[in-house]
Amino acid sequence: MKRQLATALPTVLFSASMLILPATPCAADPAAGAAGWLKEYPQADGSKPRSCTTCHGRDLTQPGQHANTGKVIEPLAPSVNPRRLTDSAKIEKWLRRNCRWTIGRECTADEKADFIAYIKTQ
Q1: 31, 30, 12: which is closest to 21 by C-alpha?
Q2: Other C-beta atoms within 10 Å of 37: how many?
Q3: Residue 92 contacts by C-beta under 8 Å, 6 or more apart in sequence?
Q4: Fewer Cβ in 10 A, N or C end of the chain?
Q5: Which residues have CB under 8 Å from 46's CB, separation 6+?
Q6: Over the stretch 39-88, which tens digit does the pLDDT of each residue have?
Q7: 92 close to 10: Cβ distance less than 8 angstroms
């Protein structure tokens, strides 16, 4: 499955001068992205474990809500929000922030590619 999106990812990565390319070519895997999306990550401060669904929900065609601020998050699914995944700077910005907040570290290039591949299937 990773090979199916191997051509899509370089388009995203090469169109973004801010993105860092992995040392070795990677192929995105939507199934791995889905697994990472649903996985709950323990928090270093002892607060409730978080996952991507904490704010974005399981159905990416629906709005989410930020767990701390209560701010409504527009649907991530490109099928209902065609503006999603069109601005590489925004993709990098939000992946950096959300990975740090949810996972406690920046995501690897493979993890980012997998998340994007998963979101693109929605």
Answers
A1: 12
A2: 21
A3: 16, 18, 19
A4: N
A5: none
A6: 999 999 999 999 999 999 999 999 999 999 999 999 999 999 999 999 99
A7: no
Q: How far, CA to CA in Å, does 75 sit from each of 22, 72, 118? A: 28, 9, 14
Tokens standing for residue 97? 């922030």
Q: Which residue has the tokens 């895997």?
A: 29
In DSSP notation, 54-77 reads HHH-S-TTS-EE-TTT--EE----
Give pTM, 2 decimals: 0.76
Residues whose CB falls within 8 Å of the CB of residue 27, separated by 6 or more in sequence, listed in order? 2, 3, 5, 6, 9, 113
Alpha-carbon span 30 to 93, nearest angstrom: 20
Block residue for tokens 């904490």: 54
